[in-house]
Design goal:
heterodimer, B: 639 residues, mainly alpha, 3% strand
Amino acid sequence: MKEVITNTPPQNWYLVLSTLLFSIGVMGVLLRRNAIIILMCIELMLNSVNLLLVSFSAYAGNTDGQVFVFFIMVVAAAEVAVGLALLVSIYRNLGSTDIDVLSKLKG
Amino acid sequence: MEQFIQPINLIGPSLLVPLLPLLGFILLIFFGKQLKTLGPWIASLLVLGSFVLSVYIFSSLGNENNLDYDLFTWLRWGDVSLNFGILIDPLSLIMLLVVTGIGFLIHLYSIGYMHHDEGFVRFFAYLNLFIFFMLLLVMGNSYLVMFIGWEGVGLCSYLLIGFWFTNDAYNDAAKKAFIMNRIGDLGFLLGMFFMLFYLGGLDYATVLGNASTMEKGAPILIAITLLMFVGAMGKSAQIPLYTWLPDAMAGPTPVSALIHAATMVTAGIYMIVRSNILYSLAPFTLEIVMWVGVATSLFAAIIGIKQNDIKKVLAYSTVSQLGLMFAALGLGAYTSGMFHVVTHAFFKALLFLGAGSVIHAMGGEQDMRRMGGLWKYIRLTAITFLIGTLAISGIFPFAGFFSKDEILAAAFHHKIVWVLLSVSSMITAFYMFRLFFLTFFTTFRGTEEEKHHLHESPWTMTLPLAVLALFAIGAGFLGMPSVMHMPHWFNGFLAPVVETSKTILGESHHVDHSTEIMLMLVATALAISSIIFAYVVYLNRKSIPEQDEETKGFAKWVSNKFYIDELYDRVIVKPIMVLSDIFHVVVDKLIIDLFVNASAWMVGFTGRTLRLVQTGNTGFYIFVMVIAMMVLLLIQLVQ
């Protein structure tokens, strides 16, 4: 395994990429109003963390992190299914996926 | 106190004495409905049982021996322990006999008197409870047990004055009695605290034993005795706490006879005689007791002249007679005071029961202006009433003569007191015969309907009258004046109780025989002249007291009881009302409500403010979430 790692780019690149992706996700969540986009941005944040995990795992020579990422992907798939189902339901009820419309809980 | 061998065999019977009426109370309260008319008979028989037991204890104990027995330890802390125990000595024996004996007669009388009342059974339950507490009061071996009885009889008095509780005025009278007694009880309670603190206990043996080692006139003794006397003022209706007793006549007449004439109101006198050593060691208090007694005696007698309600006259006469007893105690003549308690119990119970019989015959009318000429309709009542009247007026050989004469003889060395008490007895003779003539002689002044209703009472009522009349004649012979060269049984019997006081008080003012005869003649002459005066006014001139609105001048003052009730109302009740209004408006509404409302408003305000955080805007929630995460992260990094 050590040979493989020597041919790969430095780990900092992964960190930078991951941070970039995460920041894009955060900004998307904060700035966009469309619930679908927000859901996608959340996925983006999740996957940026996945990337980080995998890279650390590879550099540390410990496969635990990579196994963990598979689990996360499985759970994330389930979560997306639930999230999209909710979105469909919201759309059917309100005719919109704009989160500003969802203000029924105003105190 | 010397320690005698305990007569163990008497413990059982002496415990039964108070327990029988308690049993009666429990039976009547819980099973009254099932027992029906049997209940009152059971109640009466149980009191009779107590009386028989008392006689048995009396005959086997005598006056040489005491029964002082602690049942159990109630409280204990440090080296002080409060025991619950009984003491039977000559003093409690006398009270036992009076309470159970007269108590039984009045129970019997009530069977006839209260027969048609809805609360027939309840009435007897209360009466039995009263007898129980009264017995506890006189049988306790400590001030604590006495205090339990003291409070208990106050409660029963309250219950029985307000017996007809649908009448608001009666309820007010009951409350008045209770509150006035409470003022006195506070004095009693404070006196007990002082005793506990300075005399190391509450049982008579300890208190009196420790007190007799103190020097005469010690301030602490004066404080204790004065406080205890405040208690006696309340219970025994002395100035300034007497106004409840006339109002207490709202209760059924047997109650007035038993509680407000014969027994409960004499508790104050019993208490002072019981603590005679304390009082003898506090001459200042004795002086106060004497003057309060004299003032009350005279004051109440004067008010009695202008009263027109038959029971009110008797009530003021009771207050007056109680004053006479306190005057005797104040003069250091403890046994004479006690003697008057006993004779007064007989003739005043007789008079009240007689008045009850009159009211029964009149169908509830109590105003003497509407009576008259009853002699021929209710002869037996009239004759026994005459005996009672003669007894209270102090005519030889009726009971009142002997006891009153003894008190006057004791007062002779103190000329002013003697004169005032003689005047008071003279007035007593006048208003009693005024009552007697107005009620039983001249012509009937009631309605035709009432005239038709007139009838002698049933035997359950007349029998007690007859028995009490016998005692009103005979009881005086228990204490013959020395001039008659007969043994003074009563003083001899009580001698062990007041032995120590005799030595403390030192010189006794024994009048010689010729003076004594002179005193008797003067007293009798005064009484007879009052009777003649009453005869002239109410029989010869047939004058009838004017209607309330017609009285003027001084008479108006007297018939309105010198406006004392109004004075108390102005000086005490009204200011308290104003004060409570102030507290209501300022303290309650302004201060307390402010705190309560302010805290409620704070909660509301916080809620209203924090509500704004919940915008319902999902984007905002997410924003806050992200910010919060970043903050958490920052904190993590800083650490």
